[in-house]
Amino acid sequence: MVHLSAPLFLVRERDDYQLILAKQRASVLWLLSKAYMPKIPPELYEPCYRDHEGNDRLKPQIVHALANAELYCLALANIYADPNYHNLNHHGIIQVLTRKGIEINEPMDSNLTETVLVQTAPIRMNAHMAVIEGIMALFIKEVLIPEKVMEVVSRFSVVNPESELPYDCEEAALLWINKSCIKMRHKIEEELSSSRSPDSPDSSHLQRGNASFIALAQDLGDLSDGCCLAALLTLYCPRYFKWQDIHLHDPMSLADSVYNLQLVQKFCQEHLPPRYLLPFSGRYGLHAPFHSSQCAGFHSRPYVYI
Fold first, then answer.
1. Paired residues of 280 in beta bridges
2. Backbone dihedral region of 54: left (phi > 0), alpha (psi from -120 to 50 degrees) or beta?
3. Would you place residue 27 in the very low, low, confident or very high pLDDT band (cuts 50, 70, 90)?
4. Distance CA 290, CA 306 (A)
5. Which residue has the higher pLDDT, 50 or 276?
6. Would residue 101 be called left, alpha or beta, if left means φ above 0 and alpha means ψ between -120 and 50 degrees?
7. Across residues 100-117, what is the average pLDDT?
8. Are 59 and 48 in contact (CB under 8 A)?
9. Is 82 exposed, middle or buried (0-12, 13-18, 19+ CB in 10 A)?
10. N or C of the chain: less Cβ packing under 10 Å?
C-alpha cells in the first residue's frame, strides 16, 4: 500500500530559474529512461551534481552524451527497436522528427543548429530541451493511439466511437483519464453507500473521502493536483494504491496537490519497473510521459504527457 507519513515535504516558493532547472532535470531523466532501457545506470539516476558554489549542474557524461547526440540516438533506437538510428548527428535527429510530423519549437535565444547543439562549455540546454521535447512528442504519438485508447476504455466504460473518438493523442489521454476518474467516482460512491452507520469504526475512514472532488481534467495541465492520476492508479491497482489515501478537498491546496503527486511518485518507485519513472518538475507538478500498463492487465500501452 502506498502511504506517506506526514510531513515528508515542505512547500516552498520557487523562482523562475529554479522551475526551469527542475523541468530540465525531469526531461533529461525521461530521456535517460528511454536511452538506457530497461534501466538507467545507477550513477545517472541523479543526473545532476552540486558544484562548489552550490549550483546544480548536469553530470559531465550526460553533457557529452547530449552534445554528441548519443542519448538521442539510443532513445530513438529503443523506441523503434531499430539500430539504424545509432549513427545520427543532431541534424539527422531533427530530420527524423520532422519526417514523422513533429514540429520542433526553436528556442528564442539560439538557432537549432549542429554548431549550437555540440557546444559543451557551456551546454546550450534551451536548444537541447527543444530536441528532447520533440522526442517526447514523437514517443507519445507512436504509443498513444486514439483507436487503441477507445478499445481500452470500452473495457470498463461506455463510449461512443462516433462522438467520443479522440482527435489526437492529448484528447486520447484525457478520454482515458476522465473515464477512469468517472469509474473511480462510482466505485467510491458504492463503497461509501455500502458502509455502515457513521458511528461504525469501520466506516470512519470512508467518511474522509468525497468522490465528487475528483474533478475531470479539461486539459493536461489539470493533472497538476494529482487527483486524476491518483484516481487512475487506484482504479487499476487497488491492492497497492488505496483511494482513502488521496487528498480529496474542494478547493485543493498546494500542499494537497504535492501530497497526491508524491503518492503517485512513490507508487511508481515501489511498484513499477525503473523505466516507468515519474519525475517531479517543481511546483507545477510533472513533466514526463506516464506509463500504467503494468497494472491490472492493462496491455494497450497508453501514455500521458504530463
1. 286
2. left
3. very high
4. 7
5. 50
6. left
7. 92
8. yes
9. exposed
10. N
> Would you place residue 91 in the very low, low, confident or very high pLDDT band (cuts 50, 70, 90)?
very high
Reference 135, options 263, 288, 301; nearest CA is: 288
Kind of pairing between the strands at 289-291 and 56-58: unpaired
Report the amino acid identity of residue 113: T
pLDDT at residue 192, rounded to an integer: 84
Burial 107-145 (b: 16+ CB within 10 A, else e): beeeebeeebbeeeeebbbbbbbbbbbbbbbbbbeebbb
CA distances from 187 to 28, 31, 44, 179 (A): 37, 36, 41, 13
List of residues 6+ apart from 50 with CB closer than 8 A? 56, 57
* Three-state secondary structure readout of the chain: CCCCCCCCCCCCCCCHHHHHHHHHHHHHHHHHHHHCCCCCCHHHCCCEEECCCCCEEECHHHHHHHHCCHHHHHHHHHHHCCHHHHHCCHHHHHHHHHHCCCCCCCCCCCCCCHHHHCCECCECHHHHHHHHHHHHHHHHHHHCCHHHHHHHHCCCCCCCHHHHCCCCHHHHHHHHHHHHHHHHHHHHHHHHHHCCCCCCCCCCCHHHCCHHHCCCCCCHHHHHHCHHHHHHHHHHCCCCCCHHHCCCCCCCCHHHHHHHHHHHHHHHHHHCCCCCCCCEECECCECCEEECCCCCCCCCCCEEEC
